Structures are given as C-alpha cells and as structure tokens.
# Entry
Amino acid sequence: MIVFPYFLFTGVLVKRIYTTIDELQDSRPDVFILKAKYLSNHPLVVEGFLDRLKEISLGENLMNCQLCKYREQIIGYENDKGSPQIGHHHHVEGIGTDHNSHNHHSRKTNEN
# Structure
C-alpha cells in the first residue's frame, strides 16, 4: 500500500495521516505500507505554481479541469453545461453559496 498525502506543506492533517499509517502498520505487519512525502516544494509543483501566476498576469487563468460538468457535456449532466458553478455542499464558501447568518446546527450558546 502506498499513501501519498496530496498537500503542499506539513501540518496537523499530514501528521494525522502519518500517525494513522503507523498505527495501521503496527496492527498489520503483513501489509507493507510506504509513506510517501507530501508535495512540498517539488520542482514540478513550483513550476506549476509559477505557470498559474503567469496565466493570472496575462488574464489567461482558466479552469483546467477536464471533467468539469460546467464546461463539457458529460452524460447525465447535459443540462448543467454552461451553468454557473454551484456548491454541492451547504458549507461551500466563496462561489455565491455562503450565507452569513446561517445556523442550522442547534448548538446552544450564551446567545440562544
């Protein structure tokens, strides 16, 4: 098994992933688990980042998602082609789906 955290830098989540891998390895010595390093400053990550910055400066920063249902016709999503992107989860922020006064969890606070 290979575990490759797709993160640019270390932090709590990467540490949790590695801890979980160690615990799994201890409980399953019959399974070889390779812990790959997170992305960090790999030359291709840096190159991709610089490419995106150049695109932004030229006004050419377009989505590069090949399977984006909003740009391509995908079977089953024909009606979504060309539609504005909307979040599929009510906590998505930054694309017009956020609600400033939304409190659907019934947590009791001093204000309730």
User: Anything to note?
Assistant: The radius of gyration is 21 Å. The first strand starts at residue 2 and ends at 3. Residues 2-80 form one domain.
